[in-house]
Amino acid sequence: MQRQRRSGTRQGALELRLASAAVAIPIIVLLIWAGARWYTGVVAALLAVTTLEFQVARGSRLNVLAFMGAALSAGLAVAAHARGEWLIWVVTGTVLLPLLWAIAAYPIEDAVGEWLWAVGAVLYLGWLGCHLVLLRDVGGGRDWVFLAVFSTFATDTGAYFVGRATGRTRLAPAISPGKTVEGAIGGMVCGGAAVLLFNHFLGLRVEPALVIPLAVLLPVAAQAGDLIESKLKRGMQVKDASRLIPGHGGLMDRFDSVLLAIVVVYYYLKWVIL
Questions:
Q1: Which of 26, 128, 178, 260 lies 20 to 30 Å from 92 when distance is taken between CA atoms?
Q2: Model's pTM, two decimal places?
Q3: Per-residue pLDDT tens digits for 149-189
């Protein structure tokens, strides 16, 4: 009976995940295709929400410092699109504005900790996340964002289904008990294959000597991003950042793999391919 309940629970969770994906994927495709202000605005909103989720997950109330962090994360996305010195100004504000508020509004024993949490959230989610805009705005950026985002999804999907089907060896039980070595290998294979397929079918046509290393790096970065967020949540003593997305948890829970993967693709493109 207990085994049947677990099976039913897993089946229900899978159905929710698939339903959420069926709704989200077409929207993501349209936004990446559109680019420009619509894309930048949605990315900015996503970064703001994930920053708020981060603060709530650690047990903080939605106070002035939390909303300040959300605004700064959104500002990084907008500044990334504007280019010029705007990005430098927002990064500077990320350090100074929370510091000034924490010093003015919190007791001495709490000020430093609150400031570090706020800045850490913005740098982790806002700064890394704004690379979604930076990558979209390079030449051919639309196709590179497609490759980065959907190869990351392929990595997550491969790890999930291969882990469910064949997973036996725990990958990092202290951080994420559900992840397995077999699942990680499945994620590497699926993510790497997706990079190669997108490179061909999107017409990027990066030569094998350059695209094969990316096909290795992207799945590694995606799974590392997932484990990093899992460890952060362990420290916060929460399972999910929120319940915003049925079957998936919060935006931060779905965004974790993309954060490092998009950074890897952006700098690999800038430093190696271009």
A1: 260
A2: 0.91
A3: 999 999 999 999 999 999 999 998 888 888 999 999 999 99
